[in-house]
User: Which sequence fits this backbone?
């Protein structure tokens, strides 16, 4: 199904309210100031799917039914199809300036679980993949948005999940039943939930049998009974701004804590239930694909930051020529994360069951770049824009339009001869939002810790093999080993 904005908004309005912010229950996520901007950001993806210019990016054909579907519900079984994931992400950032997790994590999760369920079914004789197939057909038929949740609250990092004083620090199965499972616990810092209709839950780590109850993969409705959602993105994102305000864009992002209290998940929506042996496979496959694709996210926002820099230079009364080197460096940063991600995909291969799995070492290398290069891009954007962008000392839209003081504020905000005070104000606030405020994506920890990525790069780099290459080139024949430390 190729879904429209109107169908998407109608579906969100029909859901049970279970999201809170500032202690207030949000009755309608499409209208509340804490969530409506994130909903608007996602809605723009459905708009694009219904245009001739961009439908190729946002739609495709189902490999199961041959019917037209939203691309974010598709199986990525070739290099071209997984590269379409990156193209969609970069396009969405260009449209919104921010993360739209409903078009992202659930899509990756379903492809990864297709691979893992095939392996579990082969070893255990389970029917997980058939259950997953039926859910995917449902997702394709409806065109729903599906957030994804891996990260657990975790508790004391020195203890295993089963050793925690609070066993609910990580999401886990508290009751196994013939017709499904009952789950409790917390998923934390989850993006795009308020804008999505379902949530694909994955294990937050690889587990041993002692922690098998935490080896859980399933899909739940966002408004499932027993789930309470606490929105926790920047407090400023919850301001009820006046019509036409430039204090924040019409788009935004939400992140949340998901608090599960004995939620029942029917059997046909459960795709892993205690198979600890395969929980690590989920993490391996998921991070390989997700960390390859995330380079497109920061590249897309970086594209907008270059544009904001152009606008600010001109609004300040300057040509962009003096800033050419800065803008080149911004562009190089963008293309680096995008290109390393694409390289990880190109170096990958299809899983025996179909889905494309990116090269793990290159994907984690990309995550390390994602945790560094975008911050340099933001710094350059601030440098180009000047103090009005970076200091935070800038009048609000309400002061800008105040009947008594507005004219004075506008008089001193105006700079470039042919550009209005309002245009400079909007460009400055956008630059501020992109580099300091609610528009900042999770570069450092979004998609996982860069330290974790470094561990994967370390673990997959064959140092001894490389040392042998060097020995042959240098003509060294003796053994060259790490020194043995003397025993005390």
Assistant:
């Amino acid at each position: 199904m190729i879904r429209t904005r109107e169908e998407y908004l109608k579906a969100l309005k029909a859901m049970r309210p279970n999201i809170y912010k500032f202690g207030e229950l949000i009755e309608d996520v499409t209208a509340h100031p804490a969530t409506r901007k994130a909903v608007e950001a996602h809605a723009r993806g459905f708009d694009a799917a219904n245009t001739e210019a961009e439908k190729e990016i946002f739609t495709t054909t189902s490999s199961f039914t041959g019917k037209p579907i939203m691309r974010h519900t598709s199986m990525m079984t070739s290099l071209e199809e997984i590269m379409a994931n990156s193209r969609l992400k970069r396009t969405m950032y260009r449209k919104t300036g921010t993360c739209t997790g409903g078009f992202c994590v659930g899509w990756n999760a379903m492809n990864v679980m297709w691979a893992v369920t095939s392996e579990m079914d082969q070893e255990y004789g389970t029917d997980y993949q058939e259950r997953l197939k039926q859910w995917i057909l449902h997702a394709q038929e409806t065109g729903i948005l599906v957030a994804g949740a891996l990260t657990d609250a975790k508790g004391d990092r020195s203890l295993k999940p089963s050793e925690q004083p609070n066993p609910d620090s990580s999401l886990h199965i508290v009751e196994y039943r013939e017709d499904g499972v009952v789950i409790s616990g917390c998923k934390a810092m989850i993006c795009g939930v308020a804008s999505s209709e379902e949530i694909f839950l994955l294990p937050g780590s690889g587990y041993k049998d002692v922690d098998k109850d935490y080896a859980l993969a399933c899909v739940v409705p966002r408004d499932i009974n027993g789930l309470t959602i606490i929105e926790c993105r920047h407090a400023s994102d919850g301001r009820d701004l006046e019509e036409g305000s430039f204090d924040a864009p019409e788009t935004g992002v939400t992140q949340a804590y998901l608090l599960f209290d004995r939620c029942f998940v029917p059997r046909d929506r459960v795709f892993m239930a205690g198979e600890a042996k395969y929980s690590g496979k989920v993490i391996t496959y998921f991070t390989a694909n997700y960390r390859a694709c995330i380079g497109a996210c920061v590249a897309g926002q970086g594209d907008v930051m270059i544009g904001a820099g152009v606008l600010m230079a001109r609004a300040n009364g300057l040509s962009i020529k003096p800033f050419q080197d800065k803008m080149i460096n911004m562009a190089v940063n963008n293309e680096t994360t995008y290109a390393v991600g694409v390289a990880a995909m190109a170096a990958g291969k299809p899983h025996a069951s179909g889905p494309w799995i990116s090269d793990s070492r290159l994907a984690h290398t990309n995550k390390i770049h994602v945790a560094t290069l975008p911050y340099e891009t933001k710094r350059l954007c601030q440098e180009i824009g000047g103090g009005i962008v970076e200091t935070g000392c800038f009048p609000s839209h309400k002061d800008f339009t105040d009947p008594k003081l507005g004219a004075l504020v506008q008089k001193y905000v105006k700079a470039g001869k042919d550009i209005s005070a309002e245009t400079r104000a909007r460009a400055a606030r956008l630059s501020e939002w992109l580099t300091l405020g609610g528009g900042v994506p999770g570069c450092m920890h979004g998609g996982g810790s860069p330290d974790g990525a470094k561990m994967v790069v370390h673990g997959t780099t064959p140092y001894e093999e490389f040392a042998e290459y060097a020995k042959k080139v240098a003509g060294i024949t003796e053994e060259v080993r790490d020194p043995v430390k003397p025993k005390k």
Q: What stands out?
A: The chain has two domains: 5-281, 283-460. The chain has a mean pLDDT of 93.
